[in-house]
Amino acid sequence: MSKAAERNLLEVENLWVKFPTRSGVFDAVRGISFSLGRERLGIVGESGSGKSMTGRAILRLIRPPGIVRADRIALAGENLMLLSERQMRSVRGQRISMIMQDPKFSLNPVMRVGEQISEAYRLHADTSRAAAKQKSLEMLEAVKIRDPERVYTLFPHEVSGGMGQRIMIAMMMIPDPKILIADEPTSALDVSVQMQVLEIMDKLVKDRGMGLIFISHDLNLVSAFCDRVLIMYAGRVVETCRADRLHEATHPYTRGLLNSLPRLDAPVERLEVLKRDPAWRNEDSISGQT
Amino acid sequence: MSGIRIENLNVWFGEHEARVDAVKAASLAVPKGGSFGLVGESGSGKSTILRALTGLVPTWNGRMEVLGQPLGKKRDRGFYRSVQMVFQDPYASLHPRHSVDQVLGETLSLHGFRDIDERISKLLDDVGLGDAFRFRYPHQLSGGQRQRVAVARALAPEPEILLLDEPTSALDVSVQAEILNLLSDLRKEHNLTYLMVSHNLAVVGHLCTDIAVMQLGEIVETLSVEKMRAQQTSHPYTRHLLASSLGAIKTSQPQE
Ligand SMILES: Nc1ncnc2c1ncn2[C@@H]1O[C@H](COP(=O)(O)OP(=O)(O)OP(=O)(O)O)[C@@H](O)[C@H]1O
Ligand SMILES: Nc1ncnc2c1ncn2[C@@H]1O[C@H](COP(=O)(O)OP(=O)(O)OP(=O)(O)O)[C@@H](O)[C@H]1O
Ligand SMILES: [Mg+2]
Ligand SMILES: [Mg+2]
User: Fold this and answer.
1) Which of A146, A157, A159, A166 to mutate to test the pocket of ligand 2 (most atoms within 8 A of CB)?
2) How confident is the model at residue B254 (pLDDT cuts 50, 70, 90)?
3) Atom number in ligand 2 closest to CA B57
4) How far is the CA of B158 from the centre of ligand 4 (A)?
5) Which residues of chain A register pLDDT less than 50?
């Protein structure tokens, strides 16, 4: 194994996601490469740029007729592209967890949320029902849910948007994965709760030496929370930078994204909208490998 | 005339010891053509107020009025022609087996429109999607694209009042800017009334003139956006919310 492979938890080389449609093949992700160490890697970009498909492709969760192609997707040196579907199942959830963009959609609608967390815990750690329930209540508390006892007994449609997101975060932390892919995990939370929830994830990255892929359209948040950022446009990476330097990004697309943010401290009559340059589509994808 | 008026609204779920009081004695008023924001803690009852207005929660008491009409237990079709809602969860609110064309077409024909074809094109254009997306199904759309379909559907009946539950939280900032500009334009052109929930104070500040802050089912403070910007608040929770929003802006500014 090379030096880089030892340091990196994940290496993605030349990843494509294709959807055959009636009007030809649509390439949602077009040949991107990046690596992930024990760090917080942010992926930002406009709606439809391929952020979620990138996350899902790593776990081979693209629904047919979608197709994933890559030269290599290596987890700790092991090429996931060569694994059977059965082997992939043990990677999912055990070694790589993903918090989906649509939290309520990923929960079982006819089972109480507390029981779903307990079950996930029992699958992972062989314990009694009572112990699993106790642990689940602690996890709900850890993600700052008020009144965990009550929320434990609710069905998914009975929890609020922000509660649903935090329940998913609690569930995904259970199996102690090496890599967590979080797709817009806090988009329904206000800044103060958001910061608390991010601290929990941050602690996991530090304490357990985990790698985090943090997908978000919130540039301020990514800049404040992540170590490194990939900026995606039309299925490619158009720019990468240190997260704390995001505000100095130079690509006109990234600048456009930064300028379209409404600001509490600087109100404007009309928000600036991004003017997309057709040439951006054809630029080479920038490598996000380290 | 008043657009929306709520007085002493209580909303609860469950009975006896399982009863949860999700909204407690809430009052607010939005003049016709006004734009009002609801902010506050996750789980504090913001979505519940919107759902009670649209008739999705049967267990409430107090008084709710829309365009001068007091609301009872039932809502008729006329109500949904004048009041539309964009839901917080774009995944749950679109039928998985209906294409974008079907979703918009059905809403338009339900409300008696004739020129459905042109209207669908115009709506898709307004929300920045365009005709290419017309025959797609929800699973073929990204999160933000679905949310834009939900906004288009709400605009289809040309409502007078829009209830918006986190309309842009699934959207990236560039689309968010487009949708917020579209919402401002529509309001000006058609004198629409907005009641919007958002956890993002900058978004609320941009679109609204007044806000109510909720915590634990109660409206703890109502204030103008100008006061909010000037940090002239009276409740500690509002101060906390403002401080953390402004703090997040500061920490993300380039360091000297
Ligand atoms: N089954 C499908 N068939 C055709 N196109 C699809 C399909 N699924 C997704 N797409 C397209 O792939 C592109 C990338 O989607 P993806 O979900 O990765 O976007 P995203 O960057 O996560 O956007 P958002 O911020 O809105 O969630 C989108 O343009 C979407 O319409
Ligand atoms: N159908 C239901 N049955 C039981 N409890 C419910 C139901 N719907 C909502 N609740 C409860 O009512 C409270 C308020 O929920 P609501 O969805 O209004 O919160 P919110 O302010 O919109 O929060 P968020 O910002 O997280 O979306 C929550 O405690 C929630 O669990
Ligand atoms: Mg997405
Ligand atoms: Mg809500």
Assistant:
1) A159
2) very low
3) 1
4) 24
5) none
Q: What is the largest distance, in Å, between two alpha-carbon atoms of chain A? A: 59
DSSP characters over A212-227: EEEE-S-HHHHHHH-S
Residue with more model confidence, B178 or B44: B44
**Distance between CA atoms of residues A178 and A94, nearest Å:** 8
The DSSP symbol for A13 reads E
Bridge partner list, B37: B196, B211
B58 preceded by cis ω (within 30°)? Answer: no
B216: left (phi over 0), alpha (psi -120 to 50) or beta: left
The phi, psi pair for A34, rounded to 5°, reads -160, 165
Torsion over CA: B229, B231, B237, B240 (sign): positive
How does residue B252 score in pLDDT terms, banded at 50, 70 and 90?
A: very low
- Collapsing DSSP states into helix, strand and coil, what is residue B185? helix
**pLDDT band at B248, cuts 50/70/90?**
low
- Ligand in closest contact with the CA of B175: 1
A158 contacts on B by Cβ (under 8 Å) = 13
Q: Cα dihedral sign for A125, A130, A133, A135? A: negative
Q: What is the pLDDT of residues A84-136, one digit of tens each?
A: 999 999 898 789 999 887 766 778 889 999 999 998 888 888 889 999 999 99
Rg (CA), chain B: 19
**B52 to each of B25, B44, B55, how far by Cα in Å?**
13, 14, 5
Alpha-carbon distance B43 to nearest alpha carbon in chain A (angstroms): 6
Give the H/E segment covering residue A239: strand A236-242
CB A79 within 8 A of CB A25: no
Provide the token pair at B102: 């079907």
For residues B194 and A139, give the distance between their C-alpha atoms in angstroms, rounded to a whole number. 37
CATH of A38-49+87-276, one of 2.60.40.1930, 3.40.50.300, 3.30.420.140, 3.40.50.261: 3.40.50.300
* Whole-structure pTM value: 0.87
pLDDT of the residue at A265: 81
Q: Tell me phi and psi for residue A82, to 5 degrees.
A: -95, -5
**What are the tokens at A284?**
């080479």
Report CB contact under 8 Å: B249, A19: no
DSSP string, A159-174: S-HHHHHHHHHHHHHT
CB atoms A267 and B142 under 8 Å: no
**Smallest Cα–Cα separation from B220: which of B26, B6, B9?**
B26
Q: Which residues of A touch B174 (CB under 8 A)?
A: 46, 256-257, 260, 273-274
Q: What are the backbone dihedrals phi and psi of residue B37, each rounded to the nearest 5 degrees, phi first?
A: -110, 140
- The residue written with tokens 């609110």 in the block is B93
